[in-house]
Amino acid sequence: MGRGEFQQALQRIVRDMRPSKQMMPRQAAQQLLSIMETAQHETTVAASGDWKLEQYRGQGYTFFPVRQEDAAALVPQAEAALKEKYIRWCANQGGGDCLGLLDDDPFLRTDDRRTLALAFALSGVLTETHDAITAELLSTRALVSMIVWTVALYCMMWVVPEPTTKALAATLTVLLIGYLGIDTMYGLMSGWARLAETAHQATTFEELRAAGERFGKALGQNAARVMILAVTALSGHTLGQALPRFKALPSFNLAGAQFEAQGGTAALARAEATEAVVTTQGALAQALAAVEVVVVSPQGPIAVVMSKTRTSSATTQAPGGRATETVLRHRGGNRQVELSDGQRWHLPRDKSVADIPTQDRAGDALQEAVTQAAKNWGPDKLSAGELAAMQKAEMKGAYWLSRLLEREARGRYVQMQVKARFERLYDFSLSKSVDVVDPATGIRYEILSGTASNLARHGRRMAGEFFRMLTF
After folding, report:
1. CA-CA distance, 293 to 310, in Å (whole number)?
2. Helices marked H in 134-263 — which ranges?
3. Cα separation of 255 and 257, whole Å?
């Protein structure tokens, strides 16, 4: 995967992304990979304040103050020097706390040091990433830091006693096996284990840089590009929405051929309850749709065991043989379902999946137009008034409000673009509580951003409406 095709693919993916300014990069990565934040191993000493002792495999490596009451506070020299050099390094990476390592503590904790070392490993490709998305996003630094945190947390799953990845992280593992191959994955696991060990013991910026550069040589630019594209494609999307993005990645067919050559078809056959798989697709695409848990095991036929943990009762079929899964159930009895072809529908309590039409050509055309309009959106589409309102909010420190104003402006742009293209065919009068109605079929559509909060809000606000959700 060359630099050019990597950057082009990344630009396509991030056009419909806006990193949350309300969530720290660490939290965004944990949410994406469904990782609960675990309590750190801490020891509090009663002297004249509180100090935190972090441990790794029974050894204490980091010991720094959380609260002090002395007239002259004690400052750990090694931690302070590491923090100072990190901030200095960030000056060329967007400034400030560029990776969000100091969001929770004034010093770099063990997971912070691992993440910083990984940033050194990815440095060349992170520069490519930054250059590719600068023109697409207002919050470039937030997205880059979230990517680094997500990759770091994902890699840490490799070094637990039983290296298991679940949910979207399992999908990421299957995709990487297709692109990189089993042998390369094992090499990266070993390399990451060495980096993690060194990062826990490191006390200087130079030691972390050296550890990161060693892992960077093992990783290579190709694997780094694949990991960044895969993580970015997953971010802020359900699996049904991410699958088309995966299949549009450079060399996806070659990755699928490698997956099959290493026994991917046989591994897929062993997965349980694969009713959500579209059998006309290749083994890699099928595996991405079916897998929920991946356990890396030297005893496995291709060193990976895949299993579908949901019971078959959790998935039903819509007309046309499409698998349908309830992804959000509201208190009022209404629910949102996602089909195996990526469609998302809102069902009031008196409707079932049997009411979903077998074919919806109008909806497919509208969804395509919504997706294209979202891709065309950029900061240059903001009006002078919209930009001034956002800047005013940021000057007051209300970054959440600026983010909300930007999202609303983007939604208005997408809606107006779609209306201009289809208003001669469909009803955009907004008099029927939804955005669009097809007069020929009576099917109703709502255009909305696909964030979890917005999907949930529309379900609550329109509990009694039966409509297809056209997301961007």
Report:
1. 10
2. 140-156, 167-180, 182-201, 205-234, 239-247, 252-261
3. 5
Q: How confident is the model at residue 397 (pLDDT cuts 50, 70, 90)?
A: low
3-state secondary structure of 329: strand
Q: What sign for the dihedral angle of Cα 93, 97, 101, 103?
A: negative
Distance CA 446, CA 236 (A): 19
Tens digit of each residue's pLDDT (9 = 90 or more) over 39-75: 555 555 445 777 777 776 666 767 767 777 765 667 7
**Long-range CB contacts (within 8 A, 24+) of 146-149:** 146/19, 146/25, 146/28, 146/29, 146/235, 147/228, 147/231, 147/232, 147/235, 148/25, 148/99, 148/115, 148/118, 148/119, 148/122, 149/25, 149/26, 149/28, 149/29, 149/99, 149/100, 149/115
Q: What is the pTM of this model?
A: 0.56
The encoded tokens of residue 75 equal: 């400052």
> Could you give the count of Cα atoms lying within 13 Å of 103 in the half-sphere of its Cβ?
18
User: Residue 315 region, left (φ>0) first, then alpha (ψ -120 to 50), else beta?
Assistant: beta
Q: Which of 145, 87, 95 is nearest to 118 (CA)?
A: 145
If DSSP codes are grouped into helix, strand and coil, which group holds residue 322? Answer: strand
Query: Mean pLDDT lowest for which of 153-167, 186-200, 341-355?
Result: 153-167
pLDDT tens, position by position, 114-136: 999 999 999 889 888 888 887 66
The two three-digit tokens of residue 26, written as one number: 């660490």
Name the 3-class secondary structure at 315: strand
The predicted structure's pLDDT at residue 38: 58
Identify residue 460 by its one-letter amino acid code: R
∠ CA 43-44-49, nearest 5°, is 150
Mean pLDDT of the chain: 80
The upper half-sphere exposure of residue 134, i.e. CA atoms within 13 Å in the direction of its Cβ, equals: 8
Mean pLDDT of 347-352: 91
